[in-house]
Design brief:
about 550 residues; six-stranded antiparallel β-sheet; mainly beta; single chain
Length: about 550
């Protein structure tokens, strides 16, 4: 009887924690705003485009969404187990400036796909599920544009793959379920797949733990690829591994479904002979968590980050302890070079209904601080963002947050974490009105200006308060394709400030050098910010070409 009583108490405790997400009262700054109670779909994938609109989508076999398509537009799939003829939207375009959205039409299943923005500003999205596995879809940023699909645009089926934009303008597509290879889009140069044994070596039978690999373009033009608990440096042109990195200490998995997140930390000193590149991997789930979650036991998530200088001759991982354990979190590079860790759960794993204990507090990571003082807990949301949540940086410095659907279909009642159709904005502390007199306003160049590699660039700003010249800096951020806790193509470059001159009342001119090559910054549209005392301006779009 005593054992039964203890078991009942334990089960009750599990239920209590599952229904009461973790909120910490010690949070210091940041605030939240509900933008839309419902956009009709659950934002499982998200990408900001150059017209300040965000394209989002979920999947076509969820069942009907709450957003109807225009008359006559329907998705017809006889193999769809939810509904064979679906006349509702599963993709939307959200207009940041007007806080409005419109329905978009996808013709095949985009579930768990990947993508990125090409140098011309078009979103190219690859793969998906079922009839969508071989598809390439293109979305152009215009007032009335919609998805265009190429049925056999891929050489291999891609589901849970990762894309990265390359210096030559193509995208590389790496991995996916049962795909231990990579390929390129568009297929105007190489039409085949290329074997990557590293992906089969990191695959755990029956669990995988290496899907949606973390891929970053290194400053030498090679690709850093992380899967499971370790990484390689790949010369993708010659299909050759040029460096093998050690395992993260402890050997715990960080890739889907033991989903952590990762960022390439801000690139600095871009005119130096040697440029350091560092990767930060945070959170995840201990080995075995996925299988245990399937059996109803939800293991506490990892509370560590691992940081490595990928350009060092003898690189080593350095472990850091987060204030909050987190699985399925997202990591967003902020304009001032800090990292926002947001969304996710405190226990369990990625997968249908396998996460518990939402982590409602974001955490700020400050990479330049001493190792013991790099984390800061921020104010919480009220909305759990579990499996299939998303987050992207906006031009005004806010972070757009959406999604969360841990169920196989839309499910709004009788579950711990209902399907979430809402959109929120998180306002980092630098957007507080008390900093308005320190906040730069860019007056030149105009948004959408073209810039060239390795050229002097002059930026004119207005700052009404007292200016500290050596704390003025210019940054460039590449908008990311976000899904499944990873932001593909996310990149921040610190251009610094080579020269600052006062040019009138409260007006200053900052001179910087643009990136030296496509290895540092592939051609395309970037958000350019001026940062003063850690307070960023509103960004402007620049076209690097």
């Amino acid at each position: 009887m005593a054992e039964m009583s203890t078991l009942c108490t334990f089960l009750f405790s599990l239920l209590l924690f599952a229904s009461h997400p973790l909120i910490l009262p010690t949070a210091a700054d940041g605030r939240w705003q509900l933008l839309q109670k419902s956009i009709g779909i659950s934002s499982m994938h998200m990408q900001l485009l150059k017209n300040d609109r965000v394209v989002m989508y979920d999947r076509t076999d969820f069942g009907p969404s709450t957003l109807p398509l225009a008359s006559g537009k329907c998705h017809n799939d006889p193999t769809n187990t939810a509904v064979q003829v679906d006349c509702t939207a599963h993709s939307v375009e959200y207009d940041v400036l007007s806080n409005k959205f419109r329905a978009l039409t996808v013709q095949s299943n985009v579930w768990c796909s990947s993508g990125g923005v090409m140098p011309d500003g078009k979103l190219v999205q690859t793969g998906g599920f079922s009839e969508g596995e071989l598809r390439v879809r293109v979305f152009s940023p215009c007032e009335s544009c919609d998805w265009h699909e190429t049925p056999n645009g891929l050489a291999a089926k891609r589901w849970y793959a990762t894309n990265h934009v390359l210096p030559d303008g193509r995208q590389i597509v790496v991995g996916g379920r049962e795909q231990f290879n990579y390929e390129f889009v568009p297929k105007n140069i190489a039409a085949d797949t290329f074997k990557l044994h590293f992906l089969s070596e990191t695959n755990e039978r029956g669990v995988e733990n290496n899907l949606y690999p973390f891929v970053f373009l290194n400053v030498d033009g090679n690709l850093f690829i992380f899967a499971n608990n370790r990484a390689i440096l790949l010369d993708y042109v010659n299909n050759k591994v040029v460096k093998t990195y050690p395992k993260i200490p402890g050997g715990e998995p960080r890739s889907y479904p033991s989903t952590g997140s990762a960022v390439l930390l801000p690139l600095k000193n871009l005119t130096a002979a040697t440029i350091q590149a560092e990767v930060l991997v945070c959170g995840g789930a201990p080995k075995g968590s996925f299988v245990q979650a399937l059996q109803g036991k939800f293991v506490k998530a990892l509370n560590t980050c691992a940081r490595i200088s990928i350009t060092d001759p003898k690189p080593k991982w350095v472990l850091e302890t987060m204030p909050l354990a987190r699985v399925m979190g997202d990591m967003v590079l902020l304009p001032n070079g800090k990292v926002l860790v947001i969304n996710g759960a405190r226990s369990g794993s990625a997968g249908w209904d396998l996460g518990r204990d939402p982590v409602l507090n974001p955490v700020l990571y400050m990479p330049d601080n001493e190792i013991e003082s790099r984390f800061k807990i921020l104010n919480p949301t009220k909305i759990p963002r579990m499996y299939h949540s998303t987050a992207v940086l906006l031009r005004d410095g806010r972070v757009l947050v959406g999604g969360s659907n841990p169920h196989a279909y839309y499910n709004f009642t009788g579950v711990l974490y209902p399907t979430e159709l809402s959109l929120e904005a998180f306002y980092p502390g630098y957007l507080d009105a008390k900093f308005n007199n320190l906040r730069p306003t860019i007056v030149a160049p105009k948004s959408m200006s073209g810039i060239r590699y390795n050229k002097k660039l002059k930026i004119k700003v207005v700052i009404t308060g007292e200016v500290t010249l050596n704390l003025l800096s210019v940054t460039m951020v590449s908008p990311a394709f976000n899904t499944h806790s990873f932001s593909m193509n996310q990149r921040l470059l610190v251009l610094g400030n080579d020269k600052v001159m006062a040019s009138g009342k409260s007006t200053y001119e900052i001179e910087v050098m643009t990136p030296g090559s496509g290895n540092l910054a592939p051609a395309g549209f970037y958000l350019l910010f001026v940062v003063h005392q850690d307070i960023p301006s509103q960004g402007i779009w620049v076209h690097l070409k």
